[in-house]
């Protein structure tokens, strides 16, 4: 007798976003968006251009908030040693993948790994993984600078978004790969746009016709920014998006299977129990999971 296949089991999550980490994440997101999009909220009479030298302090403050998000997420979720080990392995792998293409024509295979990891391990783990991976890769490649906090934030959003896609427990096969490939394609362009926003306002307006000029109207600066993206980063973003799609469709099924197998074996959500030496029933500490 042929038995029907078992339904997919609910995917375990090494990090569950609680109220404190969600609130901190929302705060960082608001500050990050404000720091990236302020040129479009300032008119010709604004004095924001006079404060461009204050940018490093803003970046430093954003980095501190990012660290706060990671700390709050880890402390609230009770992140166990297995999850820490998986975080370290994936972050190290992503950091090692980044220099392979050295950013040439957007050949950055780490984005593909971030999409799949976020999908399997959830949005909480995804945000932490994205931020930590970008930090580690910056140290590895010597890319430490005022742009690094924005890279960490953008990669955290990129990876977290994959964990928020629908059907994590039921959608499988080609449909899932197609969804992840489409997300990776769009998110790769979104990442490039965010990073353009991080540096574009601080270009010398006298050196380029597409630089931000605080004396111009908001719609004029928006047109300048679009022209800047098309002229400077479209090829890189297209390369990044294409590589992400190709790797997702060719290697995605194997990597997803390996990540899900590792997650099941890690048993992140299995309660920790201690055997009583007197033979009593095992004791589970309240609120403690791996």
Descriptive notes:
With 290 residues, the chain is mainly alpha-helical. Helix content is 64%, strand content 0%. It contains eight helices and no strands. The chain has helices at 19-37, 55-77, 81-101, 110-141, 148-163, 174-199, 218-232, 234-266. The longest helix is centred in the last third of the chain and has 33 residues, at 234-266. Mean pLDDT is 77; it is low at 286-290.
Tell the overall outline. Answer: globular
Radius of gyration: 22 Å
Number of continuous helical runs: 8
Reported for the largest beta sheet, the result is: none
Structural class: mainly alpha
Helix content: 55-70%
Task: Give the end-to-end Cα distance, rounded to a whole number of Å.
Answer: 39 Å
How much β-strand is present in the residues? Answer: under 5%
- The poorly predicted ranges are 286-290
Q: What are the secondary-structure elements, in order, as H or E?
A: HHHHHHHH
If you average the pLDDT, what whole number results? 77
Secondary structure tally: strands:
0
């Amino acid at each position: 007798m042929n038995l029907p296949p078992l339904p997919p089991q609910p995917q375990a999550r090494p990090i569950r976003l609680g109220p404190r980490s969600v609130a901190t994440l929302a705060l960082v997101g608001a500050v990050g968006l404000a720091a990236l999009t302020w040129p479009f909220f300032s008119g010709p009479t604004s004095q924001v251009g006079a404060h461009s030298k204050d940018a490093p302090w803003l970046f430093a403050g954003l980095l501190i908030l990012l660290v706060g998000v990671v700390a709050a997420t880890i402390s609230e979720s009770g992140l166990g040693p297995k999850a820490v080990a998986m975080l370290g392995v994936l972050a190290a792998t992503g950091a090692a993948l980044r220099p392979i293409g050295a950013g040439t024509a957007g050949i950055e295979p780490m984005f593909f790994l971030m999409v799949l990891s976020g999908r399997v391990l959830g949005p909480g783990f995804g945000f932490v993984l994205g931020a930590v991976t970008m930090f580690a890769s910056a140290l590895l490649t010597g890319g430490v600078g005022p742009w690094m906090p924005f890279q960490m934030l953008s990669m955290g959003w990129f990876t977290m978004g994959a964990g928020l896609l629908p059907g994590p427990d039921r959608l499988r096969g080609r449909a899932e790969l197609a969804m992840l490939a489409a997300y990776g394609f769009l998110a790769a362009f979104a990442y490039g746009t965010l990073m353009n926003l991080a540096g574009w306002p601080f270009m010398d307006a006298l050196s380029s016709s597409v630089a931000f000029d605080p004396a111009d109207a908001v719609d004029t600066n928006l047109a300048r920014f679009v022209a800047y993206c098309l002229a400077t980063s479209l090829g890189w973003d297209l390369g990044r998006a294409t590589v992400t799609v190709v790797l997702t469709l060719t290697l995605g099924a194997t990597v997803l299977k390996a990540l899900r197998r590792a997650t099941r074996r890690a048993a992140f959500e299995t309660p920790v129990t201690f055997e009583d030496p007197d033979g009593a029933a095992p004791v589970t500490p309240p609120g403690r999971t791996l």
